[in-house]
Design a protein that fits this description.
Helix content is 50%, strand content 16%. It is of the alpha/beta class and 316 residues long.
């Protein structure tokens, strides 16, 4: 069953009418033309809404529970995927999944945050908020990928690293820093895709890549709008104002040079046509890797470091 966001109420009402009419049509009523008219009206309303989304509305879309998650992309794009578990120091963290497989015939290392789709899986994956052992697992996988000359693909979707006491006791900040450094030191090509939320160090720890791609209605920020409003104004109700001020949308980040390209989403967001969104993402990933296929390790490292040094220096 489709879930509607608050600002999608006009579309929800039209779709409800369409469902009612389809029930009548199934009973023998000749109302096909009326259904077609309302479907066109619903599509037009949806297009108009999504053509003018505010940063806060984009935040809601990026968090939509039916949006395709990391494991959906892996299932559709990666063949022979073999997940690896554990950081060889403390334990495994299912918020951050990773392993090796084949992307369009070529070997690839995949690392990503998985939020989960059901209550049980969300709890198991800790809503995509990784602990230190998750980032240490990412480092282990990246080091293994470099040893065998295998490119790295990161799928980013997290509200941020887990802020619990246990995570801090086990060195959360140090683990994030080492993971970020491992990205920078890679002598193989790496591509990161912000598929939903790119939250703070939890995202940058695996998104420090040669190419950073971002879905049209995803968000990427140093802190969540709610947390920013609580710190700046001591009022979580000002999250909408914070979202606008923080420049967290793909369009703003492309202008600042934080990301390299925007992947257009289906009408109404990725959650309305996950298969089409995943196919578009797959094509963009393939193009990014192809552009770096003949580059040696030193060139890849230099290019990656320069990319991040240039952020914010010149507006596009």
């Amino acid at each position: 069953m489709r879930s509607y966001l608050d600002f999608e109420k006009p579309v929800a009402e039209l779709d409800a009418k369409i469902d009612e009419l389809r029930t009548l049509e199934a009973g023998g009523s000749d109302i096909g033309e009326e259904i077609a008219r309302l479907e066109d009206k619903s599509r037009q309303a949806l297009d108009e809404l999504y053509a003018n989304l505010t940063p806060w509305q984009k935040t809601q879309v990026a968090r939509h529970p039916q949006r395709p998650h990391c494991m959906d992309y892996i299932a559709a794009l990666i063949t022979e995927f073999t997940p690896l578990a554990g950081d060889r120091k403390f334990g495994d963290d299912e918020a951050l999944v990773g392993g090796f497989g084949r992307f369009r015939g070529d070997s690839v290392c995949v690392i990503g945050q998985e939020k989960g789709a059901t209550t049980e899986s969300r709890l198991r994956h800790n809503f995509g908020m990784a602990r230190p052992e998750g980032y240490r697992k990412a480092v282990r996988l990246m080091e293994m990928a470099e040893r065998f000359g295998i490119p790295v693909l990161s799928l980013v979707d997290t509200a941020g690293a887990y802020p619990g006491i246990g995570a801090e006791e086990r060195g959360q900040a140090e683990a994030i820093a080492r993971s970020t450094d491992a990205c920078l030191q890679l002598g193989v090509a790496n591509v990161a895709v912000i598929i939903g939320e790119g939250g703070s160090g939890g995202a940058i720890a695996i998104a420090t890549a040669n190419r950073v791609l971002m879905l049209e209605h995803a968000i990427y920020s140093v802190i969540s709008p709610e947390a920013a409003s609580s710190i700046l104004w001591r009022d979580a109700a000002k999250a909408q104002e914070a979202a606008t001020s923080m420049k967290i949308t793909a369009q703003d980040l492309l202008r600042f040079g934080v990301i390299d390209s925007i992947l257009k989403e289906p009408a109404g967001g990725a959650h309305r046509d996950p298969a089409a969104m995943i196919a578009t993402t797959g094509d963009a990933i393939a193009k990014a890797f192809d552009e770096m296929r003949d580059l040696d390790g030193k060139t890849l490292r230099d290019q990656r470091r320069q990319k991040f040094l240039n952020i914010g220096r010149k507006l596009g």
